[in-house]
Design goal:
Layout (H helix, E strand, L loop, with lengths): L10 H12 L9 H11 L4 H4 E3 L3 H10 L3 E4 L2 H6 L2 H6 L3 E4 L4 H10 L3 H9 L6 E5 L3 H13 L6 E4 L7 H11 L3 E4 L6 H19 L4
Helix pairs in contact: 1-2, 2-11, 4-11, 7-8, 8-9, 9-10
Amino acid sequence: MKLEYVLPADIEKRSFEIIESELKAEIPPEIKPVVIRAIHTTADFDYAENLCFSENVIEKALSVLDRGAVIVTDTNMAKSGINKAALARHGCECECFMADEDIARTAKENGTTRAAASVDKAAKIGKPVIYAVGNAPTALVRLCEHISAGTFVPELVIGAPVGFVNVVQSKEMIIESGVPCIVARGRKGGSNVAAAICNALLYMLDDKKGFQK
């Protein structure tokens, strides 16, 4: 097996070429950039089948990003993985409340997880919100409770928690809620996947507006 010589600046491009050459599924062009970036982040081709997109979600996502959305994540790892320059180009922000002192206090007082308490805090932002979940199914469950009550309806939910306890169920709840969503069905996901999906959407908006990445 020979090493492939690739210039550092060309590694991502070459990776995408390899992914394209090995993809067996036919991916609709409007969602392909998201699928490709999820695979690129994980080296897992299951995302070609696992990612679920609600109707017209890409168009809706690009519209809300273009209006300067606040992306709220359930981990600082996901927050750190979202491209800050791309956020700034479109007047967007990214927040993670998980380490905030008031979140720890509220979660303890109410007997909930910090992830659920963070959803309640995000409900008060007063701006268009994209909620990106890569770790905590309790965040998705709390989002569903708000959506059902009409107290907080994000413009988009990215549902990609990873694990075993209530992970599959919470993802299906979000799909059934009717909110615009991109969901990694099954047990797979993670903060890296949530961030990758956010970046894919930001880069798609870059391309649409003719911005240089």
